[in-house]
Every structure is written in C-alpha cells, then in structure tokens.
Amino acid sequence: AAEKGWRSDNFVLLMHDPAWWQATRTTLIFAIGAVSIETVLGLGMALVLQRFSLRLRGILLAFVLLPWAVPAVVAARLWNWMLNDQYGIINAVLLRMDLIPHGIAWTARSSGMIAMMMAVDVWQATPFMALLSLAGLQSLSPEIVEAAKVDGAGAWQRFRYMTLPLLRPILVIAALFRLLDALRMFDLSSVLYG
User: Fold this and answer.
1) What backbone torsions phi and psi does residue 75 show, to the nearest 5 degrees?
2) Is 98 left (phi over 0), alpha (psi -120 to 50) or beta?
3) C-beta separation of 151 from 63 below 8 A
4) Predicted structure pTM score
5) Which of 7, 11, 12, 178 lies at a C-alpha separation of 20 to 30 Å from 56?
6) Residue 161 — pLDDT band, cuts 50, 70, 90?
C-alpha cells in the first residue's frame, strides 16, 4: 500500500510541475503542426505522382522515399550540419542569394526551435504520407471520377467533392500513425538542440 501511495504522489507532483506542462505543450504543437503539414504535402506529392506512368512513378517514388529511409538521428545530425552558421549549406545558399547579411545560427536560437524541428520532420516524414496517400488514390474507383467528369465537374470539384471525401478515412489513419510517431520526437530535439 505504501508503494502505491508513493506512485500516486509522483503523478501529483508531475501534474503540478510547470516544466512538464511546458514540455507537453511544446511536443503537442510540434506533433500536430508537423503532421498537418506532412499530410497536405504528402497528398500533393501523391496527386502529382499519380499523373505519371506506372514505371516512371515507381522510379520517382524510390527517390521520394529516400528521406524516410534515413534514421531520425542521422537526419537530425545531417540537418544540424546543414544549418550550421559557419559551414552550413543553408546559410551558404542564403548568403550567396543575398537574402541574409551573415550566417544565422539556426539551432542556437530557442525562438525558432519548434519550426526547425518541424522542418526536419516534414522533410523526413512527408514521403511516408505521400506513399499512403498514393496507395489511397490508387484504391479509388476511376469510374466514379469519370462519371463526375462526364457530369461536368471541374478538376477542383472532383477533388473536393469526390476524391477528398473518399480518401478521408485513409488520410485520418495515416495522420494518426504519424501523430503517434511524432510524439516520440526525443531523438530529433536531442540531436538538434541537446
């Protein structure tokens, strides 16, 4: 009984700890923001990939999936190097284009921390969402879309009223999987920001 009381005391302490609530808030902002962007971009990529022939689509999909194949720690380290203010390629390109006056220490500022982590996560996980969206698009009956086209529906109307509602269950499941994965973002934040 004493051990059970000790465990409940830990939960009480946790619920009154402002640092825990701040960490929870930051994690939720990161996860919901990143997954939302990944879902929209993934669906866009899938719509573009669907227009290509099956052979070309397979080749393009292999290249698109490369960031997803990279382990999270390796991706975070790679982006940490690219974002470095002294020798990072991001600063080099922005300096060459005269968009910034000097190198920016992207990972040294806490103000953009969530945005930087979201950018890395979006780069890495959008291919997963594109793959699942493409699979969903391939499962749709072409007759339904053709019937809407014959009835005079434009491309936007077909997408909004036919394709998107039919894809919604697949997108929800894909986003849920990604959300659960994004909530485990410790490796990304640890490598980028220590």
Assistant:
1) -60, -45
2) left
3) no
4) 0.83
5) 178
6) confident
